[in-house]
């Protein structure tokens, strides 16, 4: 990290359950990477059906207990819908988005049609077969999701690939994904979920730029999603930060900890008398 100007990174949890060991590792890693720079907390609460204020309070309490601090006020995505709308409108003016009325079952049955062949699985599940592609935004209804037309996006940019630098890899390697591989393997991702006005991908890109994040610290499970984010940054004229995709914390059986894995909740370890140093040891951090 030596020589980097001012690092600003963040921990961006969704308050849908207790803070667990995987979160603790992500937050401690981000804070350590910030060094003399800034460590920010961002609450990713766009899914109001799953997020709860009491989980937010509890996770802040656990993070403080771990020794982490962050500047206030904390950015909360539920208050940022106008910013996401503006980004969508901009992509709309470029002719790159379309409304999609397909439900999960429609997509599954379209993909199982004999002529379709095996569907690729992207970061958000099976690659969308494009049933609604070309529908005009003027006809968008409240029951529609909004998708990015990936093929058009690359054509408009005139770029053959997207890529980013991941500082976990030595020497500093640029990860690349060719436009054709993005189109076939990721496809037309959802930028606004039905009834929500945005999606994880759109919000995270808009907010990392709004907060001036220079280093995105996140788990390896989001590695493929980063290509989506870089494409959106290119389309919206936003800077591409550096990335650090950290290892995932697994349980004794090697399974990745689920967000709602209560058994590994920090508050349970706290109740049993564990110290912050114990938690650091449990996730493989020393010192
Ligand atoms: N909110 C996301 C999560 O809890 C992480 C966002 C990110 O690091 O980009 O998985």
Automatic annotation (TrEMBL):
Pfam families: tRNA-synt_1c (PF00749)
Entry keyword set: Aminoacyl-tRNA synthetase, ATP-binding, Ligase, Metal-binding, Nucleotide-binding, Protein biosynthesis, Zinc
Keyword Cytoplasm: no
Source organism superkingdom: Bacteria
Domain PRELI/MSF1: 213-287
Record GO terms (molecular function): ATP binding; glutamate-tRNA ligase activity
Listed GO biological process terms: glutamyl-tRNA aminoacylation
SUPFAM superfamilies listed in its UniProt record: Nucleotidylyl transferase
Homology family: Belongs to the class-I aminoacyl-tRNA synthetase family.
Protein name: tRNA glutamyl-Q(34) synthetase GluQRS
Organism, scientific name: Paracoccus contaminans
């Amino acid at each position: 990290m030596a020589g980097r100007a001012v690092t600003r990174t963040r921990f961006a949890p969704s308050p849908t359950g207790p803070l667990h060991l995987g979160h603790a590792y992500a937050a401690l890693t981000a804070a350590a990477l910030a060094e003399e720079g800034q460590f920010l907390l961002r609450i990713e609460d766009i899914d109001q059906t799953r997020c709860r204020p009491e989980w937010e309070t509890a996770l802040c309490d656990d993070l403080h207990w771990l020794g982490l601090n962050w500047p206030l006020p904390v950015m909360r995505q539920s208050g940022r819908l106008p910013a996401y709308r503006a980004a969508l409108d901009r992509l709309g003016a470029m002719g790159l988005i379309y409304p999609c009325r397909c439900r999960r079952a429609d997509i599954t049955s379209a993909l199982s049609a004999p002529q379709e062949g095996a569907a690729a699985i992207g970061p958000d599940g099976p690659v969308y077969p494009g049933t609604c592609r070309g529908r005009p935004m003027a006809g968008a209804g409240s029951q529609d999701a909004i998708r990015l037309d990936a093929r058009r996006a690359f054509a408009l940019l005139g770029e053959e690939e997207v890529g980013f630098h991941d500082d976990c890899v030595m020497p500093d390697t640029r990860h690349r994904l060719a436009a054709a591989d993005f189109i076939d393997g990721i496809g037309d991702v959802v930028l606004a979920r039905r009834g929500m006005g945005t999606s994880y991908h759109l919000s995270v890109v808009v907010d990392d730029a709004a907060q001036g994040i220079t280093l995105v610290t996140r788990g390896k499970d989001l590695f493929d999603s980063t290509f989506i984010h870089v494409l959106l940054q290119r389309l919206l004229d936003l800077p591409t930060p550096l990335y650090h995709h950290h290892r995932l914390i697994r349980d004794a059986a090697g399974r990745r900890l689920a967000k709602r894995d209560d058994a590994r909740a920090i508050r349970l370890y706290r109740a049993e008398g564990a110290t912050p140093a114990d938690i650091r040891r449990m996730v493989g951090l020393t010192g």
